[in-house]
Design brief:
This protein is α/β, with parallel strands linked by helices. It folds into 2 domains: 126 residues, NAD(P)-binding Rossmann-like Domain (Rossmann fold), CATH 3.40.50.720; 146 residues, Succinyl-CoA synthetase domains (Rossmann fold), CATH 3.40.50.261. The chain is built from 9 helices and 14 strands. A 7-stranded mixed β-sheet has the order 3-4-2-1-5-6-7, with helices on both faces. The relative contact order is 0.12. The mean pLDDT is 93.
Length: 303
């Protein structure tokens, strides 16, 4: 089991023919993802060859067709996941195209998207019945180790296991995967740190709670907004599995944007300390550093 992404997922890449799209499509293929097509209206009908070296160091060439639209790609391949690497000024239209095609999962890697654009396609998905789950934007995507990889998360730093990870930060996602690599993960989801995102901590917590192969949830948040406080309320009311947390930004100065566009503290609102207290009140063990958080996770699993 896993959440959102499995070995049966069929992945297409919007923007596959661009430099970033090609680089990460090759990495996804190498980690075992079933990439079945790319989308670029200007290059429809072409095919792209990828020289892939697998994790067992076997080399092969994989030929991936390019389709003119998401709908055509779905109709031809049965794709159920799209990973979006298009430039920020075209991202809104790319996501709306994916929503119109009712693809179940759209992973938006692109950063620098105007908040207005993100709010528009998020609202559009809702108006269309939320048939497309959006992860991101400005996120590393998600990986189910040993099964599939949709995005830019390195596949060789951990193994399959029974920890579920949801994180606002890409870099901290990688660090936590590495720190707990000997235990392994069911699925790791990077939700992104923009002020408006699709899938939230709560969405992932709910899915991990329902996943029989996830024994422990690690949740990484950061300063700014109230997402972690709302997640704490959800955990208190709905989550029976142990949750370990980390909140980035304990030393962040007030009123200064730190890293992600959503990471800004105003007065006492959105501080790391306030989030830590809210999570601890919900029974979450919270580390002051990533390494301490990993240690707490080990202690919880050890019983």
């Amino acid at each position: 089991m896993a959440i959102f992404l499995t070995k049966d997922s069929k992945v297409i890449v919007q923007g596959m023919t661009g430099s970033e799209g090609q680089k990460h499509t090759r990495r996804m293929l190498a980690s075992g993802a079933n990439v079945v097509g790319g989308v670029n209206p200007r290059k429809a009908g072409q095919k792209v060859d990828f020289d892939v070296v697998s994790e067992t160091h076997e080399s092969s060439t994989v030929e991936i067709p390019v389709f003119g639209s998401v709908q055509e790609a779905i109709d031809t391949t049965g794709a159920d996941v799209t990973v979006i690497f298009v430039p920020e000024k075209f991202t809104k239209s790319a996501v709306i195209e994916a929503i119109d095609a009712e693809i179940p999962l759209a992973v938006v890697i692109t950063e620098g998207i105007a908040v207005h654009d993100t709010a528009a396609f998020w609202a559009y998905a809702g108006a269309k019945g939320n048939k497309t789950r959006i992860i991101g934007p400005n996120c590393p995507g998600l990986i189910t180790p040993g099964q599939s990889n949709a995005g830019i998360i390195p596949a060789d730093i951990t193994k399959p296991g029974r920890i579920g990870l949801v994180s606002k930060s890409g870099t901290l996602t990688y660090q936590m995967m590495y720190e707990l690599r000997d235990i392994g993960f069911s699925t790791c989801v990077g939700i992104g740190g923009d002020p408006v995102i699709g899938t939230t901590h709560i969405d992932a917590l709910e899915a991990f709670e329902a996943d029989p192969d996830t024994d422990l949830i690690v949740m990484i948040g950061e300063i700014g907004g109230d997402a972690e406080e709302r997640a704490a309320d959800f955990i208190k009311a709905n989550v029976t599995k142990p949750v370990v947390g980390y909140v980035a930004g304990f030393t962040a100065p007030e009123g200064k944007t730190m890293g992600h566009a959503g990471a800004i503290v105003s007065g006492s609102s959105g501080t790391a300390q306030a989030k830590k207290e809210a999570l601890e009140a919900a029974g979450v063990k919270v580390g002051k550093t990533p390494s301490e958080t990993a240690r707490l996770a080990r202690e919880v699993l050890a019983g």
